[in-house]
Write a structure and sequence with these properties.
The complex is a heterodimer of chains A (about 350) and B (about 325).
Chain A lengths: L1 E10 L7 E11 L4 E6 L5 H9 L6 E6 L2 E2 L5 H4 L3 E4 L13 H9 L14 H14 L16 H13 L6 H10 L5 H28 L4 H20 L7 E5 L7 H18 L3 E4 L3 H6 L3 E6 L2 E7 H6 L2 H12 L6 H5 L2
Parallel strand pairs in A: 3-8, 3-9, 6-7, 7-8
Antiparallel strand pairs in A: 1-2, 1-4, 4-5, 9-10
Helix pairs in contact in A: 3-5, 5-9, 6-7, 7-8
Chain B lengths: L1 H30 L7 H17 L4 H24 L5 H20 L7 E3 L14 H22 L3 H11 L1 H6 L4 H27 L1 E3 L6 H16 L6 H24 L7 H45 L1
Antiparallel strand pairs in B: 1-2
Helix pairs in contact in B: 1-5, 1-8, 1-9, 1-10, 2-3, 2-4, 2-8, 3-4, 3-8, 5-10, 6-8, 9-10, 9-11
The chains are: A alpha/beta (about 350), B mainly alpha (about 325).
Chain lengths: ~350, ~325
């Protein structure tokens, strides 16, 4: 769950050209919410995302992840809890590095960049190929090509993948995050999670000992042992509280309509498969209606409309347009927003 | 002519020693995308520290090690000026370079001499010297080999890859959880470390360290890097090839240098020559690209105008 409380962001503070980009904004997203955000130019949509990721510091307000404030956390530390896809396809990837190196960089998010590990290992390569195949762009055959040689659409798809893949967190990280994002006393959280882990490990050891003394043959023992390990792993991973929140900042705006649609479909599939909490900014009303379970309209740094559930399903471009005019005036409208490209 | 041919192995050794320095420039300029001017100072610092240690009776191993360490500290200072205080990278480098001038003089005054410390191979034990050129040649070749392999492996690790990403795209790097400031500082430390190491090697090879030995070092380093890039660009984008290219560039620079000296070129003008080479290598591709785009546009416009005329005729 992510909650924004009383966010204020001003630009050129104290000068004659002072502008309020975000004006005491409040917003709460439940786990698995897929929110589309629309609004005119200067409504503060991109600023909002940049504040959540930490690229821009907010002047006031809290950013709560599972009720714990992360607004003081640095951008690169916060990055382990967010996946960010930018409007400009050039920004999301390292152009002089290969496709696989880029994926490896994303895969290491939230982990120490070690001097004693290769940037990717053989076992990772198979995983990356599998992931790239789901994009259906043939990128799996271009693993060792520099990203600079890819088209804008391919790059955005790659960035999307980079924003959503992550390596399985270590048990220590699961514990750490559990404590960090525990709603309440931290000491209590530490005791609780340590006890849970200890019980699980004790259980595992007991079963393992039983298994080793039993009269099964070697092959069967091996099989049962790996099943036990998987069970332990599954039990412990239930306490992993942090799934990346996906932040999409008009990520299809620079693409041609056909590619944009493909990238959007991929986005929708990845979000649904992983049940990711997502914020997607778009200037295209059709897409804003088509995707997600909730729609937010922003104007002058505030949320002016918030539509979800059945109401969202019944939305038409016309009703949305009327709302747009009431809230922000005609001058905010652009042709592309009305026509949907 | 025989004199000229006899001077070529020496030119190769000098090229390889300066190639080590150029590898440092390659790391800051090409990988971190920061033109770091600290190197003019840290190169001398490495030479000065090493010469002082040897002059005062220490072993050359200790001299090399302390020279390297001094370079790493210089890089750290530039890095902190840039990342902690927000001073633009070029200016941060200039500031450190200026400060190092005084520091270098003070280091040299630790002996009973100042601004020039002689450590001739006849009286001191050094790793190699120009008195035994072929001995120096295989030793420096070995050092280069080790350095290239070490850096190749380093930039293949998670940490090394994250440094390359930082130089390539800072916004993306931060979004992928990379501490870009730390990486910039680390990269500058590495870069200045081996630049100082190269200064220490040169001091031993030529038999003295001098306060002026680093003047224009950055330009020589850039010369090697741009010549190397121009050569390897067409061969392979492979990282190993690019690093080897830097050394090839440095050796070519010194062979050309030796040749123009042999041809009786005024040695006062050599620094200007180096500056012109860098300006040409950096500037010509840019101008060429612009001219080509301009010519293409004119051609295309002509074609479009012609086509437009035809359509009007039909109407």
């Amino acid at each position: 769950m992510i909650e924004l409380r009383g966010i204020v962001k001003k630009f050129n503070t104290g000068s004659a050209s002072e502008t309020v980009a975000i004006d005491h904004l409040n917003l709460t997203l439940q786990e698995g919410d897929f929110v589309t955000v629309i609004g005119g130019n200067g409504a503060g949509k991109s600023t909002l995302i940049n504040i959540i990721t930490g690229s821009l510091p907010a002047d006031e307000g809290l950013i709560l992840l599972n009720n714990n404030d992360v607004s003081g956390m640095r951008e690169y530390t916060r990055a382990q809890y967010f996946g960010h896809v930018f409007q400009d396809p050039m920004v999301g990837t390292a152009t002089d590095m290969t496709v696989i190196e880029n994926l490896a960089l994303a895969f290491g998010r939230g982990k120490t960049r070690s001097l004693f590990r290769w940037s990717y290992r053989k076992s990772d390569v198979e995983f990356f190929i599998k992931q790239l195949k789901t994009l259906g762009l043939g990128l799996e055959d271009r693993l060792y090509q520099k990203v600079g040689l890819l088209s804008g659409g391919q790059r955005q798809a790659l960035t999307l993948l980079m924003a959503t893949i992550r390596s399985e967190p270590s048990y220590n990280k699961i514990k750490r995050d559990y404590i960090r994002f525990y709603d309440g006393n931290k000491k209590e959280a530490a005791e609780k999670i340590n006890a849970i882990f200890k019980t699980a490990f004790d259980e595992f050891k007991k079963k393992k000992a039983e298994l080793l003394t039993s009269k099964l043959d070697k092959e069967e023992k091996k099989q049962k042992l790996s099943a036990l390990k998987a069970e332990l792993d599954h039990t412990l991973r239930q306490y992993d509280v942090t799934k990346p929140v996906l932040l999409l900042d008009e990520h299809t705006a620079a693409l041609d309509p056909k590619t944009a649609e493909k990238v959007l479909e991929t986005t929708d599939r990845i979000v649904k498969e992983n049940n990711l909490t997502t914020i997607m900014i778009t200037h295209n009303m059709k897409d804003a209606i088509k995707y997600g379970n909730r729609l937010i309209m922003m104007s002058k740094g505030k949320v002016v409309a918030d539509i979800s559930g059945e109401e969202k399903k019944k939305l038409t471009i016309e009703t949305l347009l009327n709302m747009f005019v009431t809230h922000s005036g005609n001058d905010m409208l652009s042709d592309s927003a009305i026509l949907g490209n | 002519m025989l004199n000229y041919l006899a001077s070529l192995p020496g030119a190769v050794v000098l090229g390889l020693i300066w190639g080590v320095m150029a590898l440092g420039v390659f790391i800051s300029y090409k990988i971190l995308d920061i033109p770091d001017l600290t190197v003019d100072g840290s190169f001398v610092t490495g030479g000065a520290v090493c010469a002082v240690v040897i002059y005062m009776g220490g072993s050359f191993w200790l001299g090399l090690l302390l020279g390297l360490a001094a370079g790493i500290v210089s890089g750290l200072i530039t890095g902190l000026l840039h990342t902690l205080l927000g001073i633009p990278a070029i200016l941060a480098g200039i500031l450190t370079q200026l400060a190092l001038w005084s520091v270098n003089l003070k280091i040299m005054s630790l002996t009973d001499l100042s601004s020039n410390i002689p450590i001739p191979a006849r009286s001191f034990k050094v790793i190699f010297s120009q008195l035994h050129i072929y001995d120096a040649l295989w030793k420096i070749a070995l050092i280069v080999l080790i350095l290239v392999l070490a850096f190749y492996l380093f930039f293949g690790t998670q940490l090394g890859a994250s440094i390359r990403a930082t130089g390539n795209n800072q916004r993306m790097s931060r979004a992928q959880g990379i501490n870009t400031k730390f990486n910039i500082v680390l990269g500058l430390m590495l870069s200045n470390g081996i630049v100082a190491f190269s200064g220490a090697l040169l001091a031993m090879y030529q038999g003295f360290a001098d306060i002026n030995m680093g003047r224009g070092a950055i330009v020589i380093g850039l010369c090697a890097v741009v010549i190397g890039t121009a050569i390897t660009k067409r061969i392979s984008p492979n990282f190993l090839v690019r690093m080897v290219g830097v050394f090839v560039g440095a050796v070519i620079y010194y062979l050309v240098y030796q040749t123009v000296v042999f041809l009786g070129f005024d040695t006062d003008l050599l620094k200007m020559l180096a500056a012109i080479v860098v300006a040409l290598f950096l500037g010509v591709p840019y101008v060429y690209k612009n001219i080509r785009a301009y010519v293409n546009r004119i051609k295309q416009n002509k074609r479009l105008l012609a086509a437009g005329g035809n359509e009007n005729d039909r109407a």
